[in-house]
Amino acid sequence: MLAYFYLYYQVFVLGYFAVLNLLYAWFSLVGLSMVARYARELSELALKDLLEREAYLPISILVPAYNEEKTIVESVRSFLGLRFPEFEVVVISDGSKDRTVEKLHEAYALVEEPVVFRKAIDSRPIRTIYRSLRYPNLVVVDKDNGGKADALNAGLNLARYPLFCAVDADSLLDGDALLRASRLFLEDDTVLAVGGTIRPLNGASVQGGVVEALRLPGGFLERMQIVEYSRAFFSGRAGWSAIGALLIISGAFGLFRRQAVLGVGGYRTHTVGEDMELVVRLHRSARERKQPYRIVYTPDPICYTEVPTDWKTLRKQRNRWHRGLWEVLWTHRAMLFNPRYGRLGMVAMPYFLFFEALSPVVEVLGYLMLPLAYWLGLLNLEFALLFLLLALGFGVLLSHLAIGIETLLFKRYASLWERLLLLGMGVLEVLGYRQLLALERFVASFQVWRKRGVWGEMRRKGLESPQVRGP
Amino acid sequence: MWRQGEWVYTLLVLGILLAEVWALGQMSVVFLGRFFEGTSYPQAYSALLQGVILTGLSLLLLSGYILLYHALTTAAETHMRQEKEASVTRFTEALFGTAQPPPPPWSKPTLEALLQMREILKGAEAQKLQEWLEAYPNPWEGPLRRRFATRATRLKALDALAQARIPRALPLALPYLHHKDPLLRLVAARTVARSAPTQAPGTLAQALLNADLPRGALLEVLLLLEDRAVPVLEQLLSRGNTKGLWAALEAVGRLRLLALARRTAPFVAHSNPEVQAAAMRALLRLGYPPEGHADAVVKALRSPQEFLRIHAVRLLPLLRRTVAESELWKHLGDPSFYVRRAAAQALAEFNYELLQRAAQEHPDRYGQEMAAQVLRER
């Protein structure tokens, strides 16, 4: 009986493995062409033209913050320094228990301002609204704690402009990020949302809220995440965007039409996957109303974010991401295999169910099967090792494909040594790191209900480079 | 930002993909055969081994390419940067001193240096640079006329022509306004707008309309025309479709073209609400009253569409004082938050005392609060 189960599982894993890797490789190819197209589309000259003429849509930057005293001043400075003609920065302190609001007070000379605004979406009560005396386009909202989505909804109520940009408080944006992302809305009325590329900030040289140079960080985990992020954005998201089925715009940086988001009821609270959930809901609503629309990824607006440096925080983050994915799939289960939603229902959602949500289950079960099969005398060791080598080789290959795109597009890690190290990290990633994270995601799959809406604390180091931080 | 060489990389990725498809396909067939006992163990083993070898080779090839590419482009870019900097120095000396400009044929970095300077400098210096560019055999003609040039090459050539701003760019760029690739159409339109002389506005307007650009892109292009925009906008206002009208009206306002104010006013009564709103925005930017069309503005105030009411309210201060005051007062009590805000803001500019009074005694509580809010912001 067990022998039969093992045999069937082997066949299943082979099929799963073949389909998954072919899909990944295809995404790499489609993503490559898409990235090349977007990179060529907007030259420096076109950017200059957009900036010098009044051809832009003003933007509200919404920065939800919870206990972000270490990073908030620098990130807000980075947002205020963006190259864009008309924007406001709305920081929403979501009941922070540390000195987030005080730090902002000290840095930006905030004054209390009674504001009348339209409460288009429900959110937890707002305690005080402040405006900066130094930067009239900086608004700080102090509100009761209600979670990230609730903070974003409060910000959405206060936002004045037709586009809004949701960014994390521990992130920095490239100077041209808004300009590059917002022109897609200008040039196509059907664009509802645009996602950019997120890159790890760790190791970067930051001065005055501006990323001056990227260097590989010293930590093993941080380096690993650089490879992971490259793969996720330059292959994954680029590929999905190219086929018009982008389901995730990272919560760390995304630009949306405010009216469209208000139209679907804003961010959904009590979920840890609020970023993906919003995008799926925008897709769903547009498809149900048969409205022409586009939700796209564009590689050049870059957001830098601080990635976890210790295992505990990284595991918590991945656990949360995986639970978020399950929550979204459950909430929108009606879309699965539903032809009404086109390639979203027939391709993207099933892919996310079988090859993202269930992949840690398949992977971990596979690892558990090996000693069991060996003990039962069913394992052909030579064959199994060869298969494992092939699987790991594919994993490395996909990482290297993404590093290749990064080299062609940005080449932000300038030295050859760093490039070599990155390629090396792509190899090391499959030798333990990936398996440990798969285990965490496996565990997360069984915690979806029990830990619904639970975020967990993130440890922050601060955004400025140590050499330029004040005494 | 994007480096040359994606074709080689794409071919490499395609090759790897095909190799993997073959390996995985073969493995699947053999393993399934093994499952149904149709193939032998050595066959399955050999298929797996082939897959491993192919993957290993692909990895070696890809990593090698990435490293080689990194090293070569770093060296080439350093060399190009140095040459470009040297060329900027030589052109600057020729421009402001007695030295001669670098003699043609110019290398790629030299040409880029010249184009960069053309973009930055204005006036007599810009004229001089343009003369040098015009005297130089057009290096972009080949890629734009060739039938089989890559899109990247064409985009680059169009972008360079846009920087050069030379009239002979026009016959090269105009055909691309009808290209099947929307990206090439957009970039060509930008080039045309930057290079177009004031003559032949009809041709240009028609070409832009036929280019079927998204309306935002069309607006972007019209704004690039700057002081040469008037005749083209006149044409668009006369015979443009809804998209063309919207873009033209937006451009009239944003470029502050008072000469077209009289032509703009009738559009506040247009049947399309988007065009109507664009006309109202343009008149507001120009500060020009919609003479003879005040009724249409007042009618728009009763529209069920919120955005139309907002624009009509903003335009009210340009109407007769009595009408404006009574309508602004009335619309402080509009059910829409944004219309109330627009009314309060318009009152703040138009009649501050009335706004103060509204903050005290407006019959609508929300209108009163909005008036107080706008007063606080002042």
UniProtKB/TrEMBL annotation, chain A:
Keywords per UniProt: Glycosyltransferase, Membrane, Transferase, Transmembrane, Transmembrane helix
Transmembrane segments: 6-27, 351-377, 383-404
GO function term, MF aspect, one: glycosyltransferase activity
Pfam families: Glyco_tranf_2_3
Alphabetical list of InterPro entries matching this protein: Nucleotide-diphossugar_trans
Top EC class, one word: transferase
Enzyme Commission number(s) from the entry: 2.4.1.-
Family note: Belongs to the glycosyltransferase 2 family.
Protein name per UniProt: Poly-beta-1,6-N-acetyl-D-glucosamine synthase
Taxonomic lineage of the native organism: Bacteria, Thermotogati, Deinococcota, Deinococci, Thermales
TrEMBL record, chain B:
Keywords: Membrane, Transmembrane, Transmembrane helix
Methyltransferase among keywords: no
Spans traversing the lipid bilayer: 47-72
Listed Pfam families: HEAT_2 (PF13646)
SUPFAM superfamilies: ARM repeat
Descriptive protein name: HEAT repeat
Originating species: Calidithermus roseus
